[in-house]
Amino acid sequence: MATDQLSTTLSALADPTRRAILARLTSGEASVTELAEPFEISLPAVSRHLKVLERAGLIVRGRDAQWRPCRLETAPLQEVDEWLMRYRRLWDERLDRLGDYLEWLQADGRKPRRRS
Amino acid sequence: MATDQLSTTLSALADPTRRAILARLTSGEASVTELAEPFEISLPAVSRHLKVLERAGLIVRGRDAQWRPCRLETAPLQEVDEWLMRYRRLWDERLDRLGDYLEWLQADGRKPRRRS
Fold this sequence. Notes:
2 copies of one chain form a homodimer. Chain A is mostly helical. Helices cover 67% and strands 5% of the residues of chain A. Chain A has a two-stranded antiparallel ribbon. In chain A, a hairpin with an 8-residue loop joins strand 1 (59-61) and strand 2.
């Protein structure tokens, strides 16, 4: 079912361990062993998570057979960001309306004080 | 595994039909029949997608037993947006560096012309 790029990305991101791995990679490249350190899961389990991230294009791995460092790729995240655009507009508009309403409330609240 | 809210949201979004349903709801409430119209899938299949979206809190459904209109809820999407924040910073920085490099290239390209 989920064969389009955006669905593959979102599906890869729908796991707290995989998101934690990506967060770690924001501070630079890391080996599988380094990535596994903070988690109470086995190296093979981490490797499986990395394969999912790699298939989604969210990480790339170095060619060095001994030390294949993982690096974050932001392109799929940018696609998520673009998809979110139209929804961001929705809550921005709602916030604007709330702001207008609060301003109106404040303006309304000042009136009696001026009268007293 | 995926029991945290963000994972539930991302998992619900990892399907093109469910994203299309959300996109339709940006222009207002709609019934299941209305939502099913553009898709070549059965009403029960649409209902299953709606249940996934409802569990993730991405839609709410009216109480009217006859016509239970679906409405978009943006709160879970805002959580995705907040999660994306730190990554957005990454590609913004990369774009800035690219901009600096292009400026440097242009400045460097002007030098020989000045000399001739």
